[in-house]
User: Fold this.
Amino acid sequence: MLVKVGTGLGFGLASASSDWIFGGCMVYDLVALAVGQSGSWRQLLSLYAMGSAAIVGAKNYAIPPYVSRKEDYALTSQEDSPTAQEDVNDRV
Assistant:
């Protein structure tokens, strides 16, 4: 019983604190584990997978991955960096 509770808490906390790629990998892993099991453990892992997917989905809906949370973020201008050809010519 302790393993089942620990698994649920661990995957739930990891889903809440991860980015969308790692969260998706954890959901995939839980689905794969559920497919390979039988009985009540299979049903519990399926519920954990759905719960983790809901956490990751809600988190990404609230804060999309393409939105920057850094206010001091600035793109570098194209004029500041040399092109690949200029870089090669400088090295030769």
Observations:
- Residues 40-62 form the longest helix (23 residues).
